[in-house]
Amino acid sequence: MKMIVAYIRHEAFEPIRGDLLEAGFPSLSITEVKGSGRQKAITEHYRGSELAVHLRPKLKIECVVETRDVDRVKEVILRHARTGSVGDGKLFVLPVEEAVRIRTGEEGESVLQAHYEEVVGSNSDGA
Amino acid sequence: MDFVLATADDLKQAIDGTLPDTVPANTLWVVVAAVFVLLMQAGFAMLEIGFSRMKNAGTGVAKILTNLSIAAVCYWAVGFAFAFGSADVLGVSSSIIGSNGFFLQFSGNGAEAFPVMGFSDAIPESKFLFQFAFCAVSLAIVWGSTLERIKYSAYVIYAVVFASIIYPIGSHWVFGGGWLQNGETPLLPTGMQDFAGSTAVHLIGATGALAALLLLGPRKGKYGPDGKPRPIPGHSMPLVGLGVIILFFGWFGFNPGSTLNITDTRLADVAVVTLLGAAGGVIGAFVATQIKQRTIDIGMVANGMIAGLVAITAPSGYVELWAGPIIGFVAGLIVVFGVIWIDKKIDDPIGATSAHGLAGIWGTLACGLFTAPRLAEYNAFGNPEGGLVYSGSFEQLIAQAVGVVVAFTFVFTLSYVTFAIIKATIGIRVSEEEEEAGLDIVEHGMYGYPEQFIPQSEIGAGLSGTPVSAPAAPAVPATARAGEAPA
Description:
The structure holds 2 protein chains of 2 kinds. Chain A is of the alpha+beta class. Chain A is 26% helix and 31% strand. In chain A, the strands form 2 sheets. In chain A, strands 2-5-1-6 form a 4-stranded antiparallel beta sheet, covered by helices on one side. A two-stranded antiparallel sheet of chain A has the order 3-4. In chain A, helix 1 runs antiparallel to helix 2. Chain A is elongated, with a radius of gyration of 18 Å. Mean pLDDT of chain B is 90; it is low at 465-487. The N and C termini of chain B lie far apart (76 Å). Chain B is 63% helix and 1% strand. A two-stranded antiparallel ribbon of chain B has the order 1-2. Chain A binds chain B through residues 10-11, 14, 34, 41-46, 50-55, 57, and chain B through 220-221, 436, 441, 444-447, 450, 453-455, 457-459, 461-465.
């Protein structure tokens, strides 16, 4: 099991979420964060004075998947998050030791993500 | 021609003690009403800022002030003369365009120079102030629809054209003594009725907005890949509420002020019918959103009040009190369904095309239904037998419909051409990245709500990015500092 953590531009999130959902990875969390990197500061002007804002807003995605799915998820995130300009963000893959579904107490890889068949099934029922 | 300042004459009469008492009294009312209408700028600003996201909250302040000021100078220079002046120019009749009163210098006395307002003895300067406030309202309506993506410079250029040409000529035809109001043409045998500007102010503004929207396109993310509209909620419903109530207040200068006098005491009647129209609008929108989505949509109820007020604007000097709530109620229904309908294809963040456009059309047509014969006769415009419910004749309704079509076509054409030229030259909207970042930082280099975007730790940190307090007293030994990696 691996956790993928990516810091991306806000506007990249919607297409990533859509594609991951379609590929059977509906479970993820996001946090709005502010951080700095190579992207240069924004200069704010306020009544004649200047203020450099180094910390820029980014979106942090966290998503835990089975080890064999890491590449698929990584590919989706990179495809949509990459604009080629400074400030696209970074992606990390971390090992995960345990996973528990709180509602049932189930443990292990089966609690990660919905199976693709389930997603399709619930779509046709729900819609 | 002999140009004089009206104030010179009036002042002399006042000194001589020959100025009739009604002049200062009526002038005072018109100035007070004008100031009420000027306060509506705050209403538009708050309404539109409330319907914007936080990253676009500051630009509204700058935009309303800039455009109000540009419009003031343009309307004073040429707009007022085009809209209300008497003389013929270059062989063009004053029923097409006025040409007396550029820079408020006019020939003849006030009543001759601005004949359609000649029934009031308030001095021309007060009438100018009042009519300018209307022009500024109409202009403010345009930009509300273009929120969150229009280029600041594009809008400033449009403001010049709008306040100098589009609004003055359009409003001249409808209520400035132009051909739509006078009638007696083959197209329009009966004159059109528009007491305070459902068409002349609100529909004209909304039509400019529509032209802009068609060239501007929707905000990023407004329509999903399936083409369905997605809401982009504004950041503050309390500001929307404040804006609407300021507009409501201002409307009591807008409609009752259009009497231009207090001596016939009609301002009170007009004020009451305005109140009833606003009330009808809120109730109509309340019912419509309840039916449509089983909730009371806050923004829609706000739009309902605007729609009721817009709709009652044309009939406010023509109908009896009982018609007020009916006209308002229908406007409230129209605005809710109109917003939902227009939203399917056109991204109008504040619903101006519905609240000012569709409700403006309805209000104008409502004269054709409800105009009372006694008031048609008193105002001396349109069919003296009144609207359909009194006369059983469609004559006035047809006149209203023709007026709406002509005003819409004229304003739409000029606005579309203006915006198209702007689009082809300097561009009409900001880039995608700029739209993402928000107009506040892009156009103004600052935020409307800085603490929302700048981490607290960075505020006061200075341009270098070094905390201000850090270099003051470095208590670290030089040896330790040398060991640090260079930043």
